[in-house]
Amino acid sequence: MSQSHTIVLGASLAGLLTARVLSQHFDHVTLIERDAMPDQPEAHKGQPQTRHLHGLLASGLDIMTRYYPDLPEALMAGGALVSDMTSNMRWYTYGGYRQRFTMGRRAALMSRPFLEHLIRQRTLARHNVTLMDQCAVKGLMSDDQRQRVIGVHVEYRGESTRVAPLTADLVVDCTGRGSQASQWLGALGYQAPPQSEVKVNVGYATRIYRRNPNDPRGQEWMLYTPEAPGERCFAGMFPIENDRWIVSLGGWMGDHAPIDEQGFLEYARSLPMREVYEIISDAEPLSAIIPHKFPASLRRHYERLTRFPEGFLVLGDAVCSFNPTYGQGMTSAAMQAAVLDDLLAQRKGRLDSLALAFFKQAAKVIDTPWQLAVGEDFRFPDTTGPKPPGVDLLNRYVAAVHRATLVDPVVGAAFIQVMNLMASPGSLLTPGMMWRVWRANRHRSRMLVRAAKPTA
Fold first, then answer.
1. Please, are residues 4 and 27 in contact by the beta-carbon 8 Å criterion?
2. Which end of the chain is flanked by fewer CB atoms within 10 Å, N or C?
3. What are the pLDDT digits (tens) for 246-261?
4. What is the distance of C-alpha 348 from the center of its chain?
């Protein structure tokens, strides 16, 4: 049964995907966005992280293609790289390069503004989706008993600012990490969700360079990830649309890349992976060097609440914002939107007790990327926050998995599937996989011993 009206707060990627999902279940969907939304691919004021390195995981691309069937072709037509990510990777870690193989699933490399532009075009082309930009939400409206959210108070920012009510059957908060939902809930007499915060002090700097289309390396994506805790830096260099490279350099625990040109280049030259410096030292810069800092991963545990107003949901980074170096945020938002779609379909339009059911199912989606990100971050001894039990022991095994990927493509395939949220972390712990990891590490150790022996 279709409802009359739903409001989505925030027109970034999570909000756009949510609006697309809701357009199948409601007569009308209104997107409310604080910033002026461009009609071309560009980052807007409220999106500082969109100017930096992004990749769309295979599972994320699959979900988005379900809702936008022509998306892969549109990405490729615009110059993005849509391919089997494992066949053209150059990934240096733990003293070597991961073995290449064929995964059989496509992922996408492009600038975040370009991807979001394509998603926005297709979402707003839906006959029942309307965008209200340059509007701020000042709070929730509720019924007299404060048991149901019935809309929002909207501040219209035009020639003269005014605040007016806008009613809806459902309001979904997709405003990101800075969500005011906890304060709004408090004003209605509800508890804020408990939070988990894992402090990582990650910082990086990004620059765009011209990419030579005749250079065979221009169809590869390059990544350097550290062997923690001894190393703390990382580098990513992805080919994006319009024959450009996007390059992000940075690290954990304050080991951040400089934003002056010479310092940026020296930082790249200091890394064990040489290709990034070799290319950018000769490439034409097309942008300034832009810094970004991410102090902590933050998860709001809405699934632990037992009391919540009807007619209100929270989704995307407003629920959980991960360390962005792992590239999980866009895919997590897509997976949460798909959960909402399935839940509404199962309930045939019923909205009673929707929030608590959604939060429990969304938590299952969030658990895996959260465990992966937090587990990796706790390799660094200065990381603080709620530490999962047994993570140190597990990390010793995962370090062996990383080393095994340098010589065994089967282990590499299993690792990449987990990283792409296509398989559970438990798939790396089967007896057969553990045996392959042990064998690969033994083989690599022998190779290193032989390489270290002096020649006669």
1. yes
2. C
3. 999 999 999 999 999 9
4. 30
* DSSP helix/strand/coil, 271: coil
Alpha-helical regions (H) of 270-315: 275-280
pLDDT higher than 80, residue 204: yes
Residues sharing a CB contact under 8 Å with residue 62, sequence separation 6 or more, in sequence order: 105
CA nearest neighbour of 218 among 241, 199, 196: 241
| Closest alpha carbon to 232 in 280, 270, 259, 196 | 270
The conformation of residue 78, written as its DSSP 8-state character, comes to T
| Amino acid, single-letter form, for residue 90 | R
Q: 195-210 and 290-300: which strand pairing?
A: antiparallel
The separation between the first and the last C-alpha atoms of the chain, rounded to the nearest angstrom, is 81
Q: Which amino acid is at 368?
A: T
Tokens describing residue 327: 């590239």
Which of 67, 55, 49 has its CA nearest to residue 108?
A: 55
- Coil/strand/helix, residue 372: helix
Average pLDDT for 136-155: 97
Section 25-46 average pLDDT: 91
Q: Which residue in 179, 172, 426, 137 sits closest to 320, CA to CA?
A: 179
Q: How many CB atoms lie within 10 A of CB 303?
A: 18
> With contact defined as beta carbons under 8 Å apart, do 235 and 271 qualify?
yes
408 vs 42: CA distance, rounded Å: 40
Which of 69, 72, 66 shows the shortest CA–CA distance to 21? 66
Taking a C-beta distance cutoff of 8 angstroms, is the pair 391, 228 a contact? no
